[in-house]
From TrEMBL:
GO terms for cellular component: cytoplasm. It is an enzyme of class 2 (transferase). GO terms for biological process: glutathione metabolic process. CDD domains: GST_C_Tau, GST_N_Tau. This is glutathione transferase. Residues 21-100, 247-326 form the GST N-terminal domain. Belongs to the GST superfamily. Tau family. Gene3D superfamilies: 1.20.1050.10, Glutaredoxin (3.40.30.10). It comes from Oryza barthii. Coiled coil: none annotated. It holds the Pfam family GST_C_2.
Amino acid sequence: MLGLFPSVSQSSVVEMAGSGDELMLLGKWPSPFVTRVELALGLKGLSYEYVKQDLVNKSELLLASNPVHKKIPVLIHNGKPVCESSIIVQYIDEAFPDAGAGAALLPADPYERAVARFWVAYVDDKFVPAWVATFRGKTEEEKAEGMKQLLAAVETLEGALKDCSKGKPFFGGDTVGIVDVALGGLISWVKATEVLAGSKIFDEEKAPLLAAWAQRFGELDVAEKVLPDVDGVVEASERKTMAGGGDELKLLGMWASPFALRAKLALSFKGLSYDYVEEDLKNKSELLLSSNPVHKKVPVLIHNGKPVCESQVIVQYIDEAFPDAGVPLLPSDPYDRAVARFWAAYIDDKLLKSWLQASMCKTEQEKAAAMKETFAAVANLEAAFKECSKGKPFFGGDAVGYVDVTLGAVIGFVRVGEALHGMRLFDASRSPLLDAWLDRFAALDAAKAVLPDTGRLAEYAKMKQAEWAAAATN
């Protein structure tokens, strides 16, 4: 399985004293799955380099190391990546059997090893999904159902601890084992959820063995060094006002609309969950008409029952309403913010207006005039990118910003223009900075999750051109 992942060459990896092994962990605080790996490495007494990851703008190292899931944690051992927390913990135990003062994390007996793996899978397949529903449910009903399932999983794990420990301190017996590590990585989050939900999960009366185990595990030296501070987790959770964590978001859109795509991109870069409602623009819903009675158009973002209309207004609202989610889209400096708003408006008022006009022109002469205006707008945006990016990858600098999202929504139609007409709006000779920016933006995970398929978009574009041609004839 590990052969699915390419070897990773890194020059700046910590070498363990005398071992000849180089270990690097890609992670992010306070991921409980990264914490699992940190616990295993700590119990084994292994040195490693920790590389913090930005999960909105994922590093090339992470994408190359985990091309299947593109997630943390990833452990890179002598250039070879190992993915998925439970697999990584087993790998650490098997690759370093003599490391650390404690016993092996996996039992020596094949049957007991199978039992341990079963309960690790139970933690991931039953306990974690129920906990996520309790923690991130969009409605009180979802949270209540999640808590019900979570407490049922706790009851099952209480019995598992009794059977596995045989009256000793841990699932692994006298010493910490792999089940302890799998569940132990979640302890800070469980305690934070207890604070936020106001309900005990490891209850001393209903699950006395687990409650005592959690206290005992948390007092281990390695756990005290590795487990995230509970107050910090609570504070981070309260700041991260993700949809489903008290906020309900619904987006009314149409799949091909670049304006609806802007809202989707902003939500994606912010890491926000939302319900999406596809609108039939020839038979508009009552929800759309009542939410946007002035223009009666998509997109409309409905946040806790309150509608926000117009794509640029929506993107700014998302950034301001969820300041701690994902990356900030608008600059903090008022002048830089004004500049970003200017160029976002320029994209709509000059670039898109003339480009759309070119696609609807009746004569070649009209089309040529419209395209001349379009390429003049492209030239100005090329200069704007140079000025705003200051040599960095995006209009927003090192990270995607408001202008990137505004322009990024039209990438699909740029590609369609090339596919259907052999004309690329941004090309390497006329606008090399924007040409490189387009490919760079489109390669981001948050963009790939949203941008429509070029083939499908091309079919839609041909249909619309046929409709415009028929209307012009009539």
